[in-house]
Amino acid sequence: MNLEVAAGGFSAMGSEARLEVLRLLIRAGEAGLTVSEIQERSGIAPSTLAHHLKFLAAGNVVTQEKQGRSTITRANFDHLRLLADYILCECCADAPRKAANDG
Fold first, then answer.
1. Which among 63, 85, 72 has a CA at the least distance from the CA of 12?
2. Which of 10, 11, 14, 49 has its Cβ near the most Cβ atoms within 10 Å?
3. CA distance 25 to 19
4. How far, in Å, are 28, 40, 81 from residue 14 at the CA level?
5. Mean pLDDT across the stretch 90-102?
6. Does residue 95 or residue 7 have the better pLDDT?
7. Which residues are paired to 66 by β-bridges?
8. d(Cα 61, Cα 64) in Å, to the nearest integer?
């Protein structure tokens, strides 16, 4: 994953409302939720929710699939794992290391 893609993903999660929606979708698992279910659970107004879902989809942290008249929105678990790996991949790389024989 490159810096630009990572920044897009993290930016998509950069508001309390979008983070709340993403957490609802993560809790729902692979089945996802319809837009009306997300609205019902979050209390976010429909037009505002559409705006937030657009940002989340653009950051590739959610996917949307049309099923009949409904749109199912799911957390993109694969991309979320890549984002987590990206931010943590160099964890503690510059931290001083203690030698095994240092008391």
1. 63
2. 49
3. 10
4. 21, 22, 17
5. 80
6. 7
7. 71
8. 10
Kindly state the tokens that stand for 22. Answer: 């993403």
| Structure tokens belonging to residue 103 | 């008391």
List Cβ neighbours of 53 (8 Å cut-off, separation of 6 or more).
21, 35, 38, 62, 64, 73
pTM, two decimals, is 0.88
7, two tokens: 């920044």
Rounded-to-integer distance, Cα 69 and Cα 59, Å: 24
Amino acid at site 52: H
Contacts for 82 with CB less than 8 Å, ≥ 6 apart: 1
* pLDDT of 99 above 80: no
| Residue whose token pair is 């749109």 | 71
DSSP sequence for the chain? --HHHHHHHHHHT-SHHHHHHHHHHHHHGGG-EEHHHHHHHH---HHHHHHHHHHHHHTTSEEEEEETTEEEEEE-HHHHHHHHHHHHTTTTTTSPPPPTT--
